[in-house]
Amino acid sequence: MPSFNKKALALSLLLSATAPENMLAFQSSLRTTSRVASRTISSSTRMFSTETETEKEAGPQVVVNEEAYEKVKMDDIVSLCKRRGIIFPSSEIYNGFAGFYDYGPLGAELKKNVKDAWWKNFVTSREDVVGLDSSIIHNPTTWKSSGHLDGFSDPMVDCKETKLRYRADQLFASPIVLEENDETIGWVCVQEANDEDMVKDAKKMAKKMMKSTEHKEKKIQAFSFRDLTEVSEEEMAQIPSPGSGEPTLTMPRDFNLMFQTNVGAMSDASSVAYLRPETAQGIFINFKNALGTSRAKIPFGIAQIGKAFRNEITPRNFIFRSREFEQMEVEYFIPPGDDVWQPFHEKWMQESKEFLIDVGLREDLMGWDVHEGDGLAHYARACTDITFRFPFGTQELMGIAARGNFDLTQHSEGSGKALDYFDDQTKEKYIPHVIEPSLGVDRLILALICSAYAEDEVNGEKRNFLKFSPKIAPVKVAVLPLLKNKEELVSVARELYDELKKRWNVSWDATGAVGRRYRRQDEVGTPFCITIDFDTIEKDAGVTIRDRDTTEQIRLPMDEVIPYLSKQIDGY
Ligand code: GAP
């Protein structure tokens, strides 16, 4: 008969959650690596069944496939997200809606964890940043002042034949030039992708075009791609549209990306308003309110997380570029001066990078992209992107800009209200300058899923799993009673589950062989599995905690479970 006292368990769990000495106790009494655990376990035949066949006795032999990510295609990521309930196409039962996505049960958790981690890192744990949650629709004059009404556009080209619309800077054309005599015999036009894929597509197209001509067997020179904003009218008249295969594209025209709506009962020009294309302007127009009510002193920042909407001409690469997305932005206000902004900019670059690594981005896939010359907005002093190597190529993940005092000056002029700051130390009045780290939640989630994508062999058995950092993993812990039809096991496991659930998103899994349950949790990136076995109720009131990445197991007394997990998940 089980000798375990359930009331004592509940009490010990509660105590362990609050008493700091338990954390010390945990550190001193944390037993063992998996090998020791396996040996301990091997003394009990019942305990064997908490391991998969291949994780038995000798301890796991894990061989990581370091190349797994290199072979991944975007389609693999998209279908993984759908299969595991992370992200679905929006309105799927109506065949979807281009550029919109829905987060499923695990995706919603993941997204919330990412936003909470950002907020904690950049707002609540700092003294110099306050939060804001502004409306999505602002007075439309906001967008006149900010320049979005006149300048927030992308160049587009239309296919006159198919009526399809493309971003001109995402279509690349190249002449097909014969090697023998430099003669241009036609053009190819391909969509932006990584270099290798673009060349592959272009070769296919050139081959097809040459097949029916006298140039069939001839060699051609390497392609020299230019995007369609850089081609002349004569050239455009020869460039085939990706839609029709014929030269039916218009010259590029500007297309404003803001979504329009009407506010109020009237649906005329006077009621036109816009869904915000960035969260930043909500911060600038609240500068005085936030300053006045928080008694902040420069340098200080205002942070906001929220939805942004852009009517992207070609939403693509899944949630990388969508029409509805979320941003996490800080406007960090600093004194003016040519020699002031640089250290702040560098600090924000460093802090942004550290945050991204802390939530689980692979550093080896990250890089810097410093904007120079034409790539820099006219009012900006500097802008550096943090890039990430997605399966479709290296792209911007976030930007850290030094924007001068452009925005506050514009809003001050547009509203007629002074948006300046009085420094009571120097007795100076000035319009502050700003450093703006701006990060897309969805783009970060895609990068996190790519970073977590993992494959290994555990004692010769292939395993695919998601290596999410415990901080952002959608499910933190799974509780597994060894057998679902043994009431004494189930009730103790349930009690532990209920207690853990007060703190984290925890999964209950009582069905199937334990090994199969581990795999199910590995697939969705659950970092810890806790098994309740007969020793728990008969011998040591302990549990087995299995680590997803190493598959190693440790045995811990029940009252040390919460301190252990707190340290692993929350870092304290
Ligand atoms: N306030 C500055 C700003 O909005 P941005 O470079 O246009 O700058 C900042 O956007 C970040 O927002 C990008 O680095 C990206 O992470 C995210 N983002 C922008 N457009 C997006 C889109 N269409 N879909 C998903 N994320 C997007």
TrEMBL record:
Residues 1-25 form the signal peptide. One of its GO terms (biological process) is mitochondrial DNA replication. SUPFAM superfamilies: Class II aaRS ABD-related, Class II aaRS and biotin synthetases. Its EC number is 6.1.1.14. Keywords: Aminoacyl-tRNA synthetase, ATP-binding, Cytoplasm, Ligase, Nucleotide-binding, Protein biosynthesis, Signal. GO terms for molecular function: ATP binding; glycine-tRNA ligase activity. Residues 247-470 form the Aminoacyl-transfer RNA synthetases class-II family profile domain. CDD domains: GlyRS-like_core, GlyRS_anticodon. It comes from the Eukaryota. InterPro entries: aa-tRNA-synt_IIb (IPR002314), aa-tRNA-synth_II (IPR006195), aa-tRNA-synth_II/BPL/LPL (IPR045864), Anticodon-bd (IPR004154), Anticodon-bd_dom_sf (IPR036621), Gly-tRNA_synthase/POLG2 (IPR027031), Gly_tRNA_ligase_bac (IPR022961), GlyRS-like_core (IPR033731). One of its GO terms (cellular component) is mitochondrion. Belongs to the class-II aminoacyl-tRNA synthetase family. This is glycine--tRNA ligase. It comes from Chaetoceros tenuissimus.
